[in-house]
């Protein structure tokens, strides 16, 4: 069954240049407003930059949620550390803080994030985290419909990872 | 992305056909998985098999809608490794999902709204099933170019 491979190279360079420029722009744009970007004209450069910045700050906010849960329930570390590490990589892929340490993300991101207090029991805390992962994955799945191809592809992958995290945080239990 | 150029339409059709070919292979592969997997996970394998058949049928329709001739399934596919037992069957299932995730991420890139939404959903389902089979997560499902980045984060723990 011979058919041509998908045109991966077609759009590759464009993404790379976008990556370079978006990192700076990320800090200038406001963080998580909950608007659903309905008015944006699809595919324009600035809309893409905003979406990328938004994705980075969303991942950073999620990271803070992980850290809050880890601080409250250190026994969950084995379970959460691998997932948290992936969230760090997501933030980095969107041009947000290179990750690693807790407080190193952009100041604007941390200022806007006020995760609700962590649940008293580890299992409730995991459920809340799973809910946050799933909600973000849903939001990203919608947001990517209007974005340029390469960024949409990245966002779709990260949304899929988020859904998989949600699974591991709940049903994957025990 | 409301208006697609002719070139973009060709790219979308190509990516749709690639997704269809991968779903044909997944359906075949899950046939093998179903024959080897242990009783306790057989229902899960059957559900995945059904899901891939449904995706395959939907892709056939989408290819036709774009004026294409859907690629046909091969009579048989070379398995990536021997599948003598349940452990190998689970590994094959995970592998099938990862391959499918790869074509759907490409389809997301190449497509416009309607098809893109479906591809996004299919990518997500494949990623979740891959995690169920593997017991561990990967940071960028379907993005082969990021899979090789050095990290220990994806070590399966279950």
Describe the structure.
The complex is a heterodimer of chains A (174) and B (158). Chain A is mainly α and 174 residues long. Chain A has one domain (44-169). Chain A contains 6 helices and no strands. Chain A is elongated, with a radius of gyration of 17 Å. By secondary structure, chain B is mainly α. Chain B has one domain: Ferritin, CATH 1.20.1260.10. The longest helix of chain B is centred in the first third of the chain and has 31 residues, at 6-36. Chain B is globular.
Features:
heterodimer, A: 174 residues, mainly alpha, 6 helices, disordered N terminus, B: mainly alpha, Ferritin, disordered C terminus
Short précis:
The complex is a heterodimer of chains A (174) and B (158). Chain A is mostly helical. Chain A contains six helices and no strands.
Order of helices and strands of chain B: HHHHH
Unreliable stretches of chain A, pLDDT < 50, 5 or more residues?
1-42, 98-113
Mind summarizing the main beta sheet of chain B?
A: none
Q: What's the tally of helices of chain A?
A: 6
Shape of chain A: elongated
Beta-strand percent range of chain B? under 5%
C-alpha-based Rg of chain B, rounded: 16 Å
CATH class of chain B: Mainly Alpha
Q: Oligomeric status of the shown chains?
A: heterodimer
- The helix/strand order of chain A is HHHHHH
What number of structural domains do the residues of chain B give? 1
Shape of chain B: globular
Number of strands of chain A: 0
Q: Describe the biggest sheet of chain A? A: none
Which pair of chains forms the biggest interface, and how many residues does each contribute?
A-B, 43 and 52 residues
Global mean pLDDT of chain A: 75
Terminal CA distance of chain A reads: 43 Å
